[in-house]
Amino acid sequence: MAVGLAFGRSGILRERCEIGSVRLGSGETDYDEGAVVPADDWRPLNPREAQWLQAGPGAPDSTLVELVHQYVSAACAERTPALHTTAVGLYPFADRWPADFLGCLTNPGNARTTTEEPATGRRLGFHIDNWDRLPYGARGDGRRRLCLNLGPGARCLLLGDRDIEEIYRLVRPDPEHRYPHTDDVRLYVAQGRPLQCLRIRLEPGDGYIAPTELLPHDGSTLGEEQPSTAAFWLGRWPGRIVDVPPP
After folding, report:
1. CA-to-CA distance for 213 and 236, rounded, in angstroms?
2. Are residues 224 and 154 in contact, defined by beta-carbon separation less than 8 angstroms?
3. Coil, strand or helix: which one is 6?
4. How far, in Å, CA of 110 to CA of 129, rounded?
5. 62, 75, 175, 217: which has the fewest C-beta neighbours closer than 10 Å?
6. Can you tell me the mean pLDDT for 10-16?
7. Cα–Cα–Cα angle for 4, 8, 12, nearest 5°?
């Protein structure tokens, strides 16, 4: 199954998203050996790609990638000491759908990818979340993650264009009752199988809702001088509740 972007018109999708290839990292001290990272050969989506990536009308809510927008004050963008409390109050759907607040993470500017392994301090590259610990065959039933960019800099969401169930099925001969892992994404790319990367830009106040237990993903601040802080929630939101924020 391809990634399903629910951004409304395909023209809007093309304005907000670029596409490129990936590579395996090797000998890079700040990355896991064999991490999957963008090759940085970004280009605009063509109309056919945008149509292929656009979520169809029957796509399950839990598999959709959507954009949200929330006003972020200058004080919040400057990362005040009360940032954690401030972020909790910025949750945009508090009056409709409950969600678990996962916390905040500040990333420096000009980072190709942002997610680190806490035990080693090395960056993971494209990876799969595992909050709900779902086995193969059920990854599309997990909760989606909401990320809100609190600024002050812009950041990007990186997404693989193949989901972990398709990837796992191709690299494991007997996938039933097994648990997909980031290593399976790395093995898939190491075998020379096709995986493209999408890059979706998020200005301060922009955010996304995405199935991060289903799609290989990461964040990026490459090309940005300023750091940015992201706040994260985990929940079950009905699909297509929002559209791309106005410019």
Report:
1. 13
2. yes
3. coil
4. 23
5. 75
6. 75
7. 100
